[in-house]
């Protein structure tokens, strides 16, 4: 089936819906995201391992075979982490220590490293073939990685927030909570857990990142997080979201055949092994 070419940079997470570019539109620069306003006070702590200190190389046959062997793997985060770890050491060298360092990175820094590796390996231009879920038409997505609004500022390691009244315990307690921002390892383990519901995934992640809640110090288990008021859970999630740059490696696409708008998930194999 013939494909249609659409110019679409990766979508920005939490961005407001906008009309997608027309088929003939040239690649465009996307303005860097602005930090979201947060009404609650928050303490930001910069994460270790600055992005500039991560030395990366182009992919070799070692990484090509690794990607090919994991084709169809549901845990894409594990493969992404492995690619960054492999490309931070010499070809064929042991990458276990590097893998643990990558797992400690923020997901934003890990994704930025993936983009750098793709540019080093195959250049700036990306051509992907994406099927429309509505009509099955094959759309060719064509864009430049240099148009991505990659964040430059370090991602904060922790966020502190003021809890709403409905999230406080009956007895007098401090009004604040402290959580760390999720890492690439958290994302990998979340996908490995195979949880089916959004609320279960939220419980899993909050039990890992919550450091302090209304005077109680962590670590906390899933039972503690599950028993928290939903207003408190939502407030923590919003604080973490607002601390992260507005970038996501998925794509906003409008089908050239039926005009349906859809989001295409990040396809690791197609991204690194285009055919």
Question: How would you describe the overall organization of this protein?
Answer:
There is one protein chain. The chain is of the alpha+beta class and 275 residues long. The protein is built from 9 helices and 10 strands. It has helices at residues 61-69, 76-86, 96-103, 107-122, 184-193, 198-209, 222-226, 230-243, 268-272; strands at 3-6, 45-46, 125-131, 138-144, 156-162, 176-180, 210-213, 216-217, 251-254, 261-264. It has a 5-stranded antiparallel β-sheet. The longest helix has 16 residues, at 107-122. The chain is globular. Residues 1-49 have low confidence and may be disordered.
For the largest beta sheet, what order do the strands appear in spatially? 2-5-6-7-8
Largest sheet: 5 strands, antiparallel
Low-pLDDT runs:
1-49
Number of E-state strands:
10
Question: How much helix, percentage-wise, in residues?
Answer: 25-40%
Report the average pLDDT across residues. 79
Strand % is: 15-25%
The SSE order reads EEHHHHEEEEHHEEHHEEH
Overall, the morphology is: globular
Question: Pairing-aware structural class of the strands and helices?
Answer: alpha+beta
Rg over CA atoms:
20 Å
Count of helices?
Answer: 9
Distance between the termini: 16 Å
Provide tags for this entry.
about 35% helix, three-stranded mixed sheet, globular, single chain, disordered N terminus, five-stranded antiparallel sheet, about 280 residues, alpha+beta
Topology:
Elements: E1 3-6, E2 45-46, H1 61-69, H2 76-86, H3 96-103, H4 107-122, E3 125-131, E4 138-144, E5 156-162, E6 176-180, H5 184-193, H6 198-209, E7 210-213, E8 216-217, H7 222-226, H8 230-243, E9 251-254, E10 261-264, H9 268-272
Parallel strand pairs: 1-4
Antiparallel strand pairs: 2-5, 3-4, 5-6, 6-7, 7-8, 9-10
Helix pairs in contact: 2-3, 2-4, 2-5
């Amino acid at each position: 089936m013939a494909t249609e070419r659409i110019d679409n940079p990766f979508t920005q997470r939490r961005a407001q819906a906008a009309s997608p570019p027309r088929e003939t539109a040239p690649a465009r620069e996307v303005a860097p995201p602005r930090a979201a306003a947060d009404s609650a006070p928050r303490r930001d702590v910069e994460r270790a391992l600055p992005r500039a200190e991560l030395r990366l190389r182009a992919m070799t046959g070692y990484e090509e075979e690794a990607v090919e062997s994991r084709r169809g793997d549901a845990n894409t985060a594990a493969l992404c982490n492995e690619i960054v770890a492999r490309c931070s050491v010499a070809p064929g060298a042991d990458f276990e220590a590097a893998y643990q360092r990558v797992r400690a990175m923020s997901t934003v820094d890990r994704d930025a490293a993936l983009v750098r590796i793709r540019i080093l390996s195959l250049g700036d231009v990306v051509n992907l073939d994406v099927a429309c879920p509505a009509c099955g038409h094959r759309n060719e997505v064509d864009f430049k990685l240099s148009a991505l609004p990659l964040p430059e500022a370090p991602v904060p390691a922790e966020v502190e927030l003021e809890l709403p009244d409905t999230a406080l315990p009956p007895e007098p307690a401090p009004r604040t909570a402290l959580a760390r921002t999720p890492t690439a390892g958290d994302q990998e383990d979340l996908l490995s857990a195979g949880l089916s519901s959004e609320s279960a995934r939220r419980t899993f992640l909050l039990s890992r990142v919550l450091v302090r809640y209304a005077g109680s110090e962590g670590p906390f288990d899933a039972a503690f997080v599950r028993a928290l008021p939903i207003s408190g859970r939502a407030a923590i999630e919003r604080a973490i979201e607002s601390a992260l740059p507005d970038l996501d490696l998925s794509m906003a696409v409008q089908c050239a055949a039926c005009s349906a708008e859809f989001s295409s998930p990040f396809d690791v194999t197609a991204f690194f092994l285009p055919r």
